[in-house]
Amino acid sequence: MNIHEYQAKNLLKEFGAPVPKGAVIYDIKEVLQKIKIFDTSNLVIKAQIHAGGRGKAGGIKLVKTNEDLIKETSNMFGKILITHQTGPQGKKVKRLYIEEASEIQKEFYLSCLVDRASSKIAFISSTEGGMEIEKVAKQNPEKIIKTKFELKDEIADHDFENIIKVFKLDSKQRNQAKKLINSIFNLLIQRDANLVEINPLIITKSANLCCLDAKISFDDNAMFRHPEILK
Ligand code: ADP
Ligand code: MG
C-alpha cells in the first residue's frame, strides 16, 4: 500500500526530516484560505496521485502569482494524468498539494528499504536525483550506492559515510544528512514501512538539504499500526 506525497511528507516531518511548507487542497474553494500559511507567492502545485513521473505529465506546476495559482489549480483538479506509472488509462486528480517553491542547487536520490532476500536494511543513494532509480540502475549502475546492514538500533558511522559519500557534502550538510538518514530509518522501522524514498532530495541555493518528493510504501502483510494515515 502506498500513501500520497503529502501524507509521506507529514510523516517525514513528524520524524524530524526537512520538507517544504505545504497545504493539501481537496476543493478549489479552499485555495485562498489555505495559502495564508505561506510567506511567498512562489508556489508549486502538485497533483496527488499514486504514481510518479508527474513532472513530465503536467502534474507539477510552478506559479508566481495568486492569479496563476487559481488558474492552474482549477486546470489540475479532475485532470486525468497519464504517466509511465499509471498505465494508459491514467489517474484522476482529486487532491492537490501546494507547497513553497524551493530553489534547487542539486538533486539527489535517497531511499531506505527492507531487503527481503537478505533480511537486511538497505539504503540506496545516488547523485542522479529526479530520475527513476530503475532507469539509473539500467543506464548508469555505477552511480548507485547500496549500503546494507543487519537490523539494529543505530546506523554505524561507516554505513552512514558510505550512504552519503557520493553527495560530497560540507560539514553543515553532513549533520543534516545524518539527522535525515536517522529520521528515514526510524520511520521505516517504527511505522512498518518497507520503502521510504526521497526523490529528489535536494540541496537548496542556501545550501540546506530538503526532501522535495517522498514515497512511502507499506508491506500489505505487516501489522498496520497507524490507520490515521490511511485517511
Ligand atoms: P514526480 O517524481 O512525480 O515527477 P516530484 O515531486 O519529484 O514529482 O517533482 C518533479 C520535479 O519538480 C522535481 O524533480 C523538481 O525539479 C520539481 N519540484 C517538485 N517540487 C518542487 C518544489 N517544492 N520546489 C521547486 N521545484 C519542485
Ligand atoms: Mg519525484
In short:
By secondary structure, the chain is an alpha+beta fold.
Structure description:
The chain is of the alpha+beta class. Helices cover 26% and strands 29% of the residues. It has 6 helices and 12 strands. Strands 7, 8, 9, 10, 11 and 12 form a 6-stranded antiparallel sheet that branches. Strands 1-6-2-3 form a 4-stranded antiparallel sheet, covered by helices on one side. The chain has a two-stranded antiparallel sheet with strand order 4-5. Strand 10 and strand 11 form a beta hairpin. It binds adenosine-5'-diphosphate and magnesium ion. Residues 20, 44, 46, 52-55, 60, 99, 101-102, 104, 107, 130, 200, 212-213 line the site of adenosine-5'-diphosphate (ADP).
Task: Jot down its keywords.
231 residues, alpha+beta, 6-stranded antiparallel β-sheet, 4-stranded antiparallel β-sheet, disordered C terminus, binds adenosine-5'-diphosphate, binds magnesium ion
Percentage of residues in DSSP E strands = 25-35%
How far is the first residue's CA from the last residue's CA? Answer: 13 Å
Specify the structural class.
alpha+beta
Which value, in Å, is the CA radius of gyration? Answer: 18 Å
- Low-pLDDT parts are 222-231
Name the helicity range.
25-40%
Oligomer: single chain
Run of helices and strands: HEHEEHEEEEEHEHHEEE
Mean pLDDT, rounded to whole units? 93
Largest sheet: 6 strands, antiparallel
Bound small-molecule species: adenosine-5'-diphosphate, magnesium ion
Give the number of helices: 6
Task: Write down the overall geometry.
Answer: globular
Strand tally, please? 12
